[in-house]
Amino acid sequence: MAGGVLHVLTHGLIKGALFMGVGLVMQATGRRNMAEMGGLLRPVAGSRSELVVGGLAVGALAIAGAPPFGAFHSEWLILSGGLGAGPQGLAYLQFLAPLLTAMYALWFVARLAFGAAPEGLAPHPLPGSMWAAFVAALVGALVVGVLPQPFYHWSFAAASQVLSGVAP
């Protein structure tokens, strides 16, 4: 239960960062169809599209539960809780979720970074406010991973309240 509570926080930060990163790509390219994007890893003067792709790659690793991000801790609590309860065969299957998440998220980033750049794709500069929100969400996910103790305390306390039926 505590892993689930912590996962709501970490997943929200990381998923928010990923959505903001996609928004940055859409704003920079003026395109919404992924098939019309690619080659964003190559620097284009002033656009910083390579930094967006780098941030999306970091977000992809974070959403898959890679250390040092907060989702590592929430995934670990969930996975270890599953191993401690119920049939072991089913518990081991849950380890596929982070692996599959890493595969599809990194495939998405690789397609944006290394895919063929369509004719006329010229990313343009992005507002600092959009960058700030994107970076803040990624940093938040990193802070939860590097300094997890207060978040562990909070998630265990919240889970305890939920399980005991006590209102917060």
Descriptive report:
This protein has 168 residues and is an all-alpha fold. It has one domain (2-157). 70% of the residues lie in helices and 0% in strands. The protein is built from seven helices and no strands. The protein has helices at 2-29, 49-63, 70-83, 88-93, 96-114, 128-146, 149-164. The longest helix is centred in the first third of the chain and has 28 residues, at 2-29.
**Number of distinct helices:** 7
Q: What share of the residues does DSSP label as strand, in percent? A: under 5%
The secondary-structure class comes to mainly alpha
Give the C-alpha Rg: 18 Å
What would a concise description of this structure say?
This protein has 168 residues and is mostly helical. 70% of the residues lie in helices and 0% in strands.
Give the SSE layout.
Layout: H1 2-29, H2 49-63, H3 70-83, H4 88-93, H5 96-114, H6 128-146, H7 149-164
Question: What are its keywords?
Answer:
168 residues, mainly alpha, 7 helices
